[in-house]
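Title: [Solved] N(6)-L-threonylcarbamoyladenine synthase 3D structure

Original question kept below for reference.
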Amino acid sequence: MLTLNKTLGVLCRLPKWQIRGFLRSFTFRPGKQFLHKLVLGIETSCDDTAAAVMDETGNILGEAIHSQTEVHLKTGGIIPSVAQQLHRENIEKIVKKTLCASGVTPNELSAIATTVKPGLALSLGVGLEYSLQLVNQYKKPFIPVHHMEAHALTIRITNKVDFPFLVLLVSGGHCLLAIVQGISDFLLLGKSLDIAPGDMLDKVARRLSLIKHPAYSTMSGGKAIEHLAKQGNRLHFDFQHPLHYCRNCDFSFSGLQTAVDKIITQKEKEEGIEEGQILSCAADIAAAVQHTVASHIAKRTHRAILFCQQRGFLTPSNAILVVSGGVASNLYIRRTLEIVTRATNCVLLCPPVKLCTDNGIMIA
Ligand code: KG4
Ligand code: ZN
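Solution (posted by the thread starter after getting help):
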């Protein structure tokens, strides 16, 4: 009792945010007292400067994110040196905002976790340099994090998912299918032989000049295509499905991008418009591209599920497909994958949209 009174006396003299931090560092349970470990996660692998603080039980104490999407939309794609500069301008602000929202001081952290690969070297460097500065200043342990592993494991924040499970990661930089056998234990089944689906959708959106359309000007290319596709008829264009002759789980999107490019050029000629103006059939093209991407992804995933089931990697009691990465926020693609999981008695799990795209929570 005396100790508690003394503690309360000290607490009363502390500023509010420090009190909150102190109280949050403990969980009071009858007869037990736990000290929660707090991890600061930092993500700068591509075009988002993000951070979050989580405790060891999975509670998100605070987070902040600065997206560079609008800038990169204007320059027509990510220019690594521009991304680096924007990360430099924002990293300190974002980390401070995160700590403030969490009510935690750097001293109260148990560790600092940061994305170290894969990603743009110049972008990764900013997060790494800033993290190591904090690590040295506050003498904290450093946890290097693999960006794709973080995407794959994010589902375990919101759902109880045991190992092994099958994961499909589809983003602007990556496209892969893997069996997650444990933390940092992945068996790769297939990957994109060229570009990632998000990159491809970004290029198509740029080629369709969607940035000039007020409704889509601030959206990422993939999101703009998804929204535009709702008004289109996919049957008006027929694109060849990539790698239909390859009996494996790899992906390819650059051939489809070239085919779409050709169609756009042809339609521009037919409609007598200049490159840069929006075609009358833009929504139909968006719908057809989205459908081709969705069915290519679904077919390769179907093959991976059948392989896993035949080889005993996925047991009937634990047949789970996790889909994550920025492109996984596309509802048309999710619904197409649902057809596959229903037909193979699998459960499809996707993190909430906010956790599908890059964020600091998945790193923490
Ligand atoms: O995971 P993410 O935030 O960053 C990377 O690691 O790449 O993914 C960003 C990618 C972008 O290419 C963006 O166009 C795409 O995800 N994306 C979408 C959607 N929202 C974002 N693609 C299709 N449909 C969406 N709704
Ligand atoms: Zn990502």
